[in-house]
Amino acid sequence: MQVTPVTLRSASVSTVSTGHSLAQAFVAAAEAIGRVSGGESLNIALADLKHRESAQTLAAAAQDLCYNTLRSYGVVDVALERLLQKPLTDFPVRGLLLTALAELAARPQSAHAVVHQAVEAAALLGHSRAKGLVNAVMRNFQRRMPELLSEIEATESGRYRHPQWWIDALRLAYPREWESVLLESNRHPPMVLRVNRRRLSAKGYLEKLDRAGIPARALGQDAVLLEKPCRVERLPGFAAGEVSVQDAGAQRAAPLLDVRDGMRVLDACAAPGGKTGHLLELAQCELLAVDADGVRARRITENLSRLKLSARVVVGDCRKPEDFSEGRPFDRILLDAPCSASGVVRRHPDIKWLRRKTDVSEFCRVQAESLEALWRVLAPDGKLLYATCSVFPEENGAQVDNFLLRHPDAKMLPLPGLAENDKGAPRPLEGQILPSANSDGFFYALLKRTTA
After folding, report:
1. 52-69 pLDDT, tens per residue?
2. Does the active-site annotation cover 230?
3. CA-to-CA distance for 225 and 192, rounded, in angstroms?
4. Which residues of 413-451 are buried (b: 16+ CB within 10 A; e: fewer)?
5. 314: β partners
6. Does residue 272 have a cis bond before it (omega within 30 degrees)?
7. How many CB atoms lie within 10 A of CB 203?
8. SS3 of residue 273 by DSSP
9. Are strands 442-449 and 410-413 parallel, antiparallel or unpaired?
10. Strand 312-315 relative to strand 286-291: parallel, antiparallel, unpaired?
11. Beta strands 378-388; 442-449: pairing state
């Protein structure tokens, strides 16, 4: 089988301002990677830095370094173990070495600067005695890099930069597409916008982008793909609610649910509110948005405020709908179920290294419980859209098949428009959208509650 390698690259140095050295960016990234090694998500690990106004540029550089490290983790983690004489248990120093090794692999032509800044970062971390270790490991890697990378990339985990169990699961599920899924999951994700059709058309917004000097093209009725990602502050009309950032695959959800004016709609597991806003842009409905995480639920309100839309937002467990349904059924329910997030790992590269194979069965349990509970509050002839951002069949088609076996009053409906995938993208498999150049990985199944 011919394998197209994913080239390691980093944009970190170009984003570090004159006020911050690469060593300072290494320190911020090392601390974040160290926390990820301890089990935290990258978003949480970087949150404090992102919220400091004085450190916005440093946060951007550190994030680039972290993404580069985690995308190439299957290589640099193995390389580091081979370069160390004994295991390194200090998480920040280990994070620094992983980050610096990934940067050196991405930019071997700048080896001198990368090694020097990594050693400086060891001192800034408060580990002066680690300077010698960092210097020795980096220079040893520089000398042995071609040999080490060749050996590591001869293994599937090294070549595809995913855990072996993940690779095996995808190969079993998608005998023809598994390799493209892995390669796409390592690439930088596209930046896709959703145009608020209540304000203007996609064509009208493309004209605005053209006047702003931002190259883009239409990707669907309301979707616009930017040629290059940019900060939302540069987007014309963003603050005024004319447009939102939302992946093309995620934009499929709201139209599939077939919401109409006057309907009572539940958006379960709604944070951060992208699909909530889209539903309200499509119809004037009575919408209840529920999420179990209070902090993330606040983001729903913030996003709706920018869009100048309103919904009732509740912090609650979607497995206990009686707590918020007020005894009235819903005409439409969107269940954006908790899942492995295996379809969006290029946006969250820490996920594939934090997840364990056993985690999938736990997600499946929560998904089944959520489906059962929400079915109780769906009105007769109502529709429920089951959605995940996963590519693992256990969480998707198998979950829905099991539900249908338990519920003779449930009927799976065809998904209009989903078969016509974007040019060049893998064809959806029974509601499954696989990662492509234009979209992340998602799964959808539309269920109707029959009355016969």
Report:
1. 756 778 888 999 999 999
2. no
3. 5
4. eebeebeebbeebbebbebbbbbbebbbbbbbbbbbbee
5. 290
6. yes
7. 10
8. coil
9. antiparallel
10. parallel
11. antiparallel
Q: Which of 269, 339, 364, 389 is flagged as catalytic?
A: 389
How many helices (H) and strands (E) the chain has is answered by 18, 12
Taken in order of first residue, the domains within the chain and their CATH numbers are 12-160 (1.10.940.10), 192-245 (3.30.70.1170), 250-449 (3.40.50.150)
DSSP-derived 3-state class of residue 266: strand
Note the pLDDT tens digit of each residue in 204-263: 999 999 999 999 999 988 999 999 999 999 999 999 999 999 999 999 999 999 999 999
Type of residue numbered 452: A
- For residues 119 and 138, give the distance between their C-alpha atoms in angstroms, rounded to a whole number: 9
Q: Of the candidates 440, 393, 270, which has an alpha carbon nearest to the alpha carbon of residue 338?
A: 270
Helix (H) or strand (E) segment spanning residue 278? helix 274-282
Q: What is the pLDDT of residue 429?
A: 58
| Distance between CA atoms of residues 346 and 67, nearest Å | 9
Say if CB 161 and CB 73 are below 8 A apart.
yes
Give, in order, the Cα–Cα distances in Å from 265 to each of 84, 299, 331. Answer: 56, 19, 6
